[in-house]
Amino acid sequence: MYIPYILLFFGLVVLFSSFVTVKQGTIAVVTIFGKYRRQLRPGLSLKIPLIEVLHSRISIQNRSVELSFQAVTHDQANVYFKAMLLYSVLNHDEETIKNVAFKFVDANNLMQALIRTIEGSIRAYVATQKQANVLAQRNEIVEHVKHQIDQVLESWGYHLQDLQLNDITFDEEIMRSMSRVVASNNLKAAAENEGQALLITKTKGAEADGNAIKIAAAAEREAAQLRGQGIALFRAEVAHGMTKAAQEMEQANLDISVILFTMWTESIKHFAENSDGNVIFLDGSTEGMNKTMKEMMSMQMEKTNNKK
After folding, report:
1. Whole-angstrom distance, CA of residue 140 vs CA of residue 122
2. Which residues contact 165 (CB under 8 A, 6 or more apart)?
3. pLDDT tens digit string along 124-144?
4. Which CATH number fits domain 63-170: 3.30.479.30, 3.40.50.300, 1.20.210.10, 1.20.1740.10?
5. pLDDT tens per residue, range 240-254
């Protein structure tokens, strides 16, 4: 009596078990009696009930993992790396999916092999380099790992998308020594810059002083030249005035000694006005004047006779 219901129940179970839903970004691997049969794409699919078995679901999205490990350089310095690994399934081909599904027992074994392979490649490269070169060769290390790992990962069905070395550090003592080296280099560069600045300042100052001396010398030379020209013009005007005065005195039938007397008194007046407290001894008596006048007249007569 219950047999039809039982058969109906098993029939419904078998019917519903033949439908399989595969999420977006994943591929389902189907086996028959443990052997690979086919793969199911994202969406709703059908499989043979009780015969086809869903072996695994493989994500075709990008996956990332963080690494933290140590390496030793050629000069025996410890280097500590922190890296981020980005990888994904190589493609959707059947052989690739079979490799992904059956190369490793589970995801943990895959991850262990992947991490150890990358660590070994980086350690092998760092072992050939010196401590001072490691920090500057970040890109070279990444390129070396990609070149070494790509072929291995392709045999597993994966592709290395990116490898980022986020942090590279050394032992504390080495870090302190590197900081001292950088500080000393900065001090050296600062001293060199200050020295160059001081040299430029002094050079420019010397050039300015030299130019100032040249300008002052040129101005003094020009002033002396102008003073000389002024004195010459003054003497010429004095001579011209005396000549004209002597001519007028002769025309008026007057003694030329009057001119000499006037010059004598003007000289005494000039000495008195411009002496600035200096003591000048001058014979201002009548006899002294007569003596001076005679000397001046004799000089004038001598010049007149010489002209004749």
Report:
1. 10
2. 81, 82, 83, 138, 141, 142
3. 888 888 887 888 888 888 888
4. 3.30.479.30
5. 776 776 677 667 666
